[in-house]
Amino acid sequence: MQAENHRPRSGSSIRRACLVVSAALALAAMPSVAMAQSKQLLIYSWSNYVPPALIKRFEAETGVKVSLDSYDSNDAMLAKLQAGGGGYDIVVPSNTVLAAMIRSGLLLKVDASKMSNFKNLSAPHDKPDADKNRDYSVPYLIGTSGFTYDSAKVPGGKLEESWKEFFEPRPEMVGKMAALNDQGEMFSAAAIYPNLDTCTENAADAQKILELLERQKPKLKIYSSSGTIDRVAAGEVALHHQWNGASHRAKTKLPTVVYVYPVEGLNLWGDNFAVPKGSPNPENAKLFMNWMMDPKNAAEASNFSGYNNAVKGSEAFMNADLRNNPAINTPESLKSRLRPVKDCSVKNRELRDGVWTRLRR
After folding, report:
1. Which of 6, 31, 170, 198 is most buried when burial is the number of CB atoms within 10 A of its CB?
2. Distance of alpha carbon 52 from alpha carbon 345, whole angstroms
3. Residues 221, 355: one domain?
């Protein structure tokens, strides 16, 4: 299962980012390394998210030896930084966590816009809300959060392209659906469906979202963010709230899988490469970041993970099944439905926490 559990969680991860400020400042205060950088690069990334073959090719082309450590959540990555940083040169935060890390002074400026391959980035990923000028990061992989259904298991073989099918399912679908066990994703979807602001600070809006989720809860079979691929492919559920890369991999096992871009809108998220303060090899990190904005290299990462990337021209190097799957390459006619994940206020995050705690108790 490749990187299936790593989507951004917008609550505790961001709060933890604020806690690591003192550790980051301590690292930043350390004397600069006088000697030349070693030919080393230590990457700390989501588990099973960076292709081993890609790393080997980077090593062969640059002479830089790469070591790769993995984590399964933004929380785990931030906790490691809090404990002393681990000597990492690159971390892979999601957009909302990236914004908090920048505000907290945890990252080194890399001036990505000055890198030779920056010109290859597609909009809006060249100027995301989390890092408007790409001073601290470059994009890695991107994806969406919609829902998947098995056309062989639904009435008439087709569902509406609407969150209504998920939140107010037809009787035949009750007990045959799964939701992501993810506060940020569930709150966002439940806000988007009735056209509420995903970053609302209004307690009345939060109550409406909670009531929608509570009405849906008894109609679900399970909340789970792990095993979603096999759960769909094995026919354990007929519909699953799912990330598009997981949906793609489910479709490779079960051709009747359909991924839906709800007409009301859906989350568009991104993961990024960034350099933590205290990196022993920041120039090697920048070299890798620029290298990953090459279309061939970005495509190899997509082929491995099942997610799209933000690099123009990479589609020419992508596997045909990935390139031709609308779940991965969003059709132009559906791009207006994408809602970039926003960095919401503390008040909003407190409302989200309250909704999720009450829902899952």
Report:
1. 6
2. 38
3. yes
